[in-house]
Write a structure and sequence with these properties.
The chain has helices at residues 3-10, 41-50, 55-69, 77-88, 90-93, 117-124, 131-147, 155-170, 172-183, 203-214, 222-232, 260-287, 324-338, 341-348, 350-366, 377-403; strands at 28-30, 36-38, 74-76, 105-107, 112-114, 152-154, 191-196, 218-221, 291-294, 313-320, 371-373. The chain is an alpha/beta fold.
């Protein structure tokens, strides 16, 4: 028998954590895994209410248990369960058990923070996996931490466990995406994602979903930029700013009119708004803040990405709906649901919107801009995240090669 087992086996109090003056008066509950937690009536009340008991019964039971164990230093979890069972009878025994909250602390370089499945599963989304799967992986990691009886874990060890779990379930490539994004949580230069596309393709919803999963807090749209510019530039001075993207030329096309006028008006508007978009990008770079910017005015070729390569990880993707029937059906359904003029106007101007989309697709081909066919929000979100993280991986590998 080792010294440690002798100390912990003969005297259960020997392995207890040190407590301060306030904690010294509390009775400590010894869990089966050896971890000790203070008995708190509030937690007991919450646990019993979660099993379906009323507040009054839960409160009385918690007080009764507190009276029974008062004056003791430690009590086993099994004893607590027996006390509660004797008081509440079979009604308690036939209820599903409530999971014991773990108190593993994570050393994150700035101090200690309690382990959270929610926080971990959020970070796992960078591996381009679905949220419910990410939560399952986080739960498996939590089970491992409990089984190992850890009171604390370093951030590096937690990431290592996450990597191993992801690699086991999905393969090394998926696991590496998680690690790549973790390296860019506090980058030397920000990650900036630009999402362009015609009206109604789902850019904003996609931008919000990607930003949420990657933990990017700044999400903006060129619509807001255009609204600010409208306040400073009159319709006489800049008429293209005071119209929608699909009628910035001068209104609906007359039969037989050349579509060049439509594209020209759209490009005039986009050139004007892109000035403000560049200012937003440069401000994010100056503040070293990652950003997702979406908008119809983000057009391939109007923003020189190479000009920002040394100061930001910047990526441009074009969002589209390539199935025209599904695209039209999307607008018609939205018009029926929302019952306002804006949605109906999209249906009326569907031909103009499709013309602009075709122009954007042509520019994307010319400037080698990746295209996301937005069939489903979930699928597109995973694709965009995968593109960003894989691009970061390639950049990192290229920088290492240049250093060598």
């Amino acid at each position: 028998m080792t010294d440690e087992s002798q100390n912990r086996g003969d005297d259960p109090d020997a392995a207890l954590p040190r407590v301060g003056k306030k904690g010294a008066k509390r009775v400590l509950i010894l869990e089966e895994n050896g971890i000790a937690r203070p008995y708190m009536r509030g937690i007991m009340v919450h646990s019993l209410m979660a099993r379906g008991f009323s507040f009054e019964i839960a409160y009385e039971t918690a007080n009764d248990v507190a009276d029974h164990i008062r004056g003791r230093r430690t009590v086993k979890r099994s004893e607590i369960s027996t006390m509660v069972s004797e008081r509440l009878g079979g009604e308690y025994e036939h209820q599903p058990p409530i999971p014991i909250p773990i108190t593993v602390e994570v050393e994150n370089g700035r101090g200690l923070a309690s382990f959270s499945k929610g926080t971990l599963s959020q970070s796992l989304l960078a591996a381009s996996i679905e949220p419910d799967v990410a939560f399952e992986v986080a739960k498996e990691i939590e089970v491992g931490l409990i089984a190992d009886g850890l009171a604390s874990v370093t951030r590096e060890e937690l990431r290592s466990r996450a990597y191993r779990q992801l690699a086991h379930r999905f393969g090394r490539r998926t696991a590496e995406r998680y690690l790549v994004w973790r390296e860019f949580e506090e980058p030397d230069k920000p990650v900036i994602l630009l999402l362009g596309g015609a009206a109604g393709v789902g850019k904003t919803s996609l931008a919000l979903a990607v930003a949420q999963r990657l933990g990017i807090r700044r999400v903006l749209s060129t619509d807001s930029i255009r609204n600010v510019m409208r306040l400073t530039l009159s319709s006489e001075l800049m008429p293209a700013l005071h119209a929608s993207s699909f009628n910035a030329h001068r209104g609906a096309l007359t039969p037989g009119e050349n579509e060049e006028a439509l594209v020209e008006g759209f490009m005039d508007q986009s050139r004007a708004v892109s000035v403000g978009a560049r200012a937003i990008v440069e401000r994010a770079i100056e503040e070293n803040t990652s950003l997702v910017l979406d908008g119809v005015s983000l057009v391939p070729g109007l923003i020189d990405l190479e000009a920002y390569r040394s100061s930001a990880h910047i990526y441009f993707l074009l969002v589209a709906r390539l199935d025209e029937d599904a695209f039209r059906g999307h607008f018609e359904l939205r018009a029926k649901r929302q019952k306002h003029r804006q949605a109906a106007r999209y249906v009326e101007r569907m031909s103009e919107i499709l013309t602009i989309q075709e122009w954007l697709l042509e520019l994307a081909d010319r400037y080698q801009t990746p295209i996301v066919d937005n069939i489903t929000l979930e699928g597109s979100t995973l694709l965009v995240i995968r593109h960003v993280v894989e691009s970061l991986r390639k950049e990192s590998a290229r920088e290492l090669t240049e250093v060598d």
